Every structure is written in C-alpha cells, then in structure tokens.
Amino acid sequence: MARSLAPVRSLCLAALVLAPLPYVALAQTPSTNPSGDTPFNSMAIARDEKDACRVPKPPADLAETAYLRNGYRAILRILIAEEALASETCTCLLDDLTWDQALDALPRFQTSDNPRLPFKVLDLYAQADALEAQVVEACAE
Predict the structure, then answer these.
(1) What are the average pLDDT values for consecutive 10-residue runs of the chain, which has 141 residues?
(2) CB distance 94 to 53 below 8 Å
(3) pTM of the model
C-alpha cells in the first residue's frame, strides 16, 4: 500500500512560510537621532591617538588600481618620514604633504616602465617601515 506524500509536503510548505516570521518581528527600521542621522551614519569610530598621524587610505580616484594606490600611500609615508628626519621634528607632518606630492615623486621610486606596475609595493612598504622606525627612534631620545 502506497502512502501519500501530501501531508509531508504540507508540513514542509508550512515550515518554509512560518520559519522567517520570528526574524521579521525582530527587524526594525533604524530610528533617527535629533540630528537626523541614522545610528549607522553617526557611529564614527574615533581614531586612536597613535593613529592620528597614520597616512590614511588613498582616495579611490588617486589611481586606477589598489596596487597603485597602495604604492602611492607607501611613497607618501616615505616622504613624510624623510621630511621628519631632515627637519629633526617629531610633530606629525601628515598635513604638510599631499597625495599630489606622492604622485610627483613617482620617478624617484619607479622600477619599471609598465604603467600598471611602476614600482614594487612591498619594497616601498619596507622602506617606509624602516624610515618610520628611524623617526620613532630619533624621537624617543
């Protein structure tokens, strides 16, 4: 005697329909605060004091690829550290140098004629790290 699958199908259909209901009840539209911002727009993360002078991520329109943007970020780090060592200053020089200066410095750091890979980013990172370590050491004295 063959058994019908209709009751099983009905139970499965009911489970599919009813399963999301508890989640719908939990979903809420974010409320706004007096300034009109949603909580997600107003939840800015404050930078640590030690990160206040850290070179930020480059703007997306600086270069076509992340590889190039990361290279220009490393170049800017190098330029800032070199300036700090040359001027013997321990203050943050981040506001004294611009992304345009990093772009202009490309010929100095260029290792290839390939416009998509004009430099070796890892080498630039290593150079920036070494120079920043020298700045930290000089300022610790």
Answers:
(1) 56 51 48 51 52 89 96 97 95 93 96 95 98 94 82
(2) yes
(3) 0.65
